[in-house]
Amino acid sequence: MNKTIYILSFTALLVLGFLTIKFYTDNMYGEPNLTNGKEKYTNNCAVCHGERGHGDGVVAATLKVSPDNIYQEITNPFGFSYELINSVLDGDNGQEGLMPAFKGVLSKKDVNDIFGHIKSVN
C-alpha cells in the first residue's frame, strides 16, 4: 500500500511540475496583442500558413515540404510556446523545411501576438 501511495504522489508531483512549467512558459510574454498579431501574421506568415494557420496558404502547394499547421502546434497540450517562438525566430528547417528565420523581422512578443491571433480565428 505504501509503495502505491509513493508512486501516485511522485506521479502527481511530476504532472504538477509539468503543468506549472507549461503555464509559466506559455504565458511568459503576457497577454497577446491581437491587432499586432493579425498585422504581423498577415505580412509574414499567411502566404504559406494560410488564413487560419493551418498550413494551407496560397504558396503552400508549391513548396517541397508543406508548412506546419501552426494552430495544431500551439494547441498541443504537450508543446511549449517558447519552443515554437524560437523555431519562428531561428527558422524551422526540420523535415527538410525551408522556413526562413524571422529573428530580424519579428520579436518574441510579436510571435506570441501571432499565436494569439491564430487562436482567436480558429
TrEMBL record:
Signal peptide: none annotated. The keyword Transcription does not apply. Residues 32-122 form the Cytochrome c domain. It comes from the Bacteria. This is Cytochrome c. The chain crosses the membrane at residues 6-24. Keywords: Electron transport, Heme, Iron, Membrane, Metal-binding, Transmembrane, Transmembrane helix, Transport. One of its GO terms (molecular function) is iron ion binding. InterPro entries: Cyt_c-like_dom, Cyt_c-like_dom_sf, Cyt_C_IC. Pfam families: Cytochrome_CBB3.
